[in-house]
Amino acid sequence: MQRVDTLILGGGLTGLSGAYHLDRQAAATGDLRLGDWLLVERDARLGGLTRTEVVDGYHFDHTGHWLHLRYPEMQQFVADVMGDQMLRVARRSRIWSHGVLTQFPFQQNLHGLPLEVVHECVQAAIEASLAEARGEHVPVHNFAEFCVQRFGKGITDRFMVPYNTKLWGCPPEEITADWCARFLPKPNLSQIVAGALGIVDETAGYNASFLYPKAGGIESFAKAIAARLPSAKVRLNTVPVRIDLAARTAGLSDGTTVSFRRVLSSVPLPDLYAIVADVPDALRERVGQLRCTSLRYMNYGIARPGVLDDIQWLYVPEPRYPFYRIGSFSNAVASLAPAGKSSLYVEVAANCPDSDGDVQLQVRQFLRAQGWLESDDQIEVQDVRHIRYGYVVFDRPYFGARADLLGHLESRGLASRGRYGGWVYSSMEDAMWEGYQFARAAEFE
Ligand SMILES: Cc1cc2nc3c(=O)[nH]c(=O)nc-3n(C[C@H](O)[C@H](O)[C@H](O)COP(=O)(O)OP(=O)(O)OC[C@H]3O[C@@H](n4cnc5c(N)ncnc54)[C@H](O)[C@@H]3O)c2cc1C
Known about the structure:
The chain is of the alpha/beta class. Helices cover about 35% and strands about 20% of the residues.
């Protein structure tokens, strides 16, 4: 039996950051125990969602993966592993609705929409603001109510509800507003009115600019971290098949058993619970309450530059289209397509019943209708991809179920972290941060 201090399950950014920072902590403190870890990854490559598939010179991330950093420690981490190999890119995103292109975010850029839509949205935003001033705001129960109270019924009906219904695959009445604290721009009335008049605030939202590797796609970042990890401590193509938290052992698919003092896992929570021994029945029922969308998206390699003009990603809220977002990797970073060509992704609505072929037809029709695609343009790559775990659904049972499930593991020495280990809506930086925090905490245990 192999003995390690920390068993790391999953080699996405959470696991990679955990491993990297454990080694850093070991070097900094002289506590060699911290560097005694084993990382077990199911797939043949590290990186998880931050891998990049290269097909005929086109680079496809698992849909857009743009890096936003708010913690100085994570800025330092990226600088340490990437040196000068990162670009800073200014956001150029748009929304297609009501027959026109407008700036992102919708709620702060009503200018350019048909006048009756602008009027409806501004009037309702004023009413919502007056209601707040009169102290009439009440506790909200779901995302739709939150939007009406915060933005007014116009913006809610014209963008928030249709877009989020496509993204989450369920009516916004079924989800809470808790996922959106950091990710949803919340302009005040003055900013909504300014946007309706055409005064554009390019800095709105958390993603006004982002970092991205100069070459090789987002996987370059994961590779740069992995290159700093001793390969003897990484086991690919391997999964845990049974974890006994009382005995502190894990049986692995390669037939070996590992004993550990503690675990950092970014394995999706339902999959993890399937292999943890001796879980009380009540908790197993809690696992059944976890909801998550599965993503279907399509990659395109097109032999023409600047498809989507210079737009990096486009939101498409209206229900008549089966997709909710179209992005151009190569408009964000030119190295993501061969010279003179474009690499695109299209994210299909979670509630879309259409077949892949039907969706692809509608994508081509949409791009042609906008003048972004000519009938003789060569589509050199066209494929369909799936992400089993996409967006964790913040419905009413969410908080209780998550707290019980994570608490049970935590009290037995297993830290379940990351986007699907922690069962949250979170970013690459959050994953890196959680790995870092895990390593920092280890020093004091
Ligand atoms: C469509 C989409 C777009 C996104 N866009 C952005 C963006 O623009 N910017 C941003 O900051 N964030 C973005 N994110 C979020 C970001 O991808 C994640 O927060 C982050 O990559 C999560 O890292 P992780 O290590 O927690 O999980 P993962 O990347 O999922 O890594 C988990 C790892 O565990 C492995 N694994 C799974 N099961 C097992 C098992 N049983 N045994 C061993 N290993 C296992 C997996 O193979 C994987 O390598 C996006 C996410 C999605 C879904």
